[in-house]
């Protein structure tokens, strides 16, 4: 009889090891940071060993944790590869899409019903990750990535999906405090770890150079920062494509007319060798159409 820890605990441990963050691991796994912490505590109790040193805003592996990770990584990868192979054999018609968590939550999922209405026969698997998709390892069909204009990737087809236009956003109540960019000196800035330069770049675009861009609250994801803004905790930098729904619903307000356009838009990346597959082509065309791009 095999005695092994729960797969949920192992998945939480492996994700936390990659990010050295329970919050980012939770974002990837689609659970709360508390759930990740509990799974790892369960694993530590099962092993009778401490796997992480917990600090105020970060974690680090103990020596035992590093050794355990090294020993279980290859078996976990083999399990993942074998499972992916069998799933691909039984679900050949599925189209797999990898997207950033915030992009999936704030742009893709709100439009998902239209895809199913048009193509009810297509089974779509949505996977979220903060890291760029690894097409060779995970055999994805499509992924959304932030890439510089003109980027080329061997064996990949790249289509511009959405511009990354950024500007400050906050709750309607808080918006009354600000009439010009200079008023942000009194604001609580909400930062997101994946895009640490958004605030200084937007302030430079607005011609503001005497504000401490490190002040404020820091969050592990864009979605958390935007959610904090919706709840009146401060001012976040929003990406236009990802905040339009919240602005339309009255949860957020765009501050000022200054918009900074990034040179790295959201790009739709797909495997060139799979381009002729009808269902993959249909999902790709739907995404481009939903984004207002030529097909």
TrEMBL record:
Keyword Transcription regulation part of the UniProt annotation: yes
GO biological process: DNA-templated transcription
UniProt xrefs under SUPFAM superfamilies: Periplasmic binding protein-like II, Winged helix' DNA-binding domain
Keywords tagged on the record: DNA-binding, Transcription, Transcription regulation
Protein name: LysR family transcriptional regulator
Cited PROSITE patterns: HTH_LYSR
Domain HTH lysR-type: 5-62
Gene3D superfamilies (alphabetical): Periplasmic binding protein-like II, Winged helix-like DNA-binding domain superfamily/Winged helix DNA-binding domain
Keyword flag Nucleotide-binding: no
Signal peptide boundaries: none
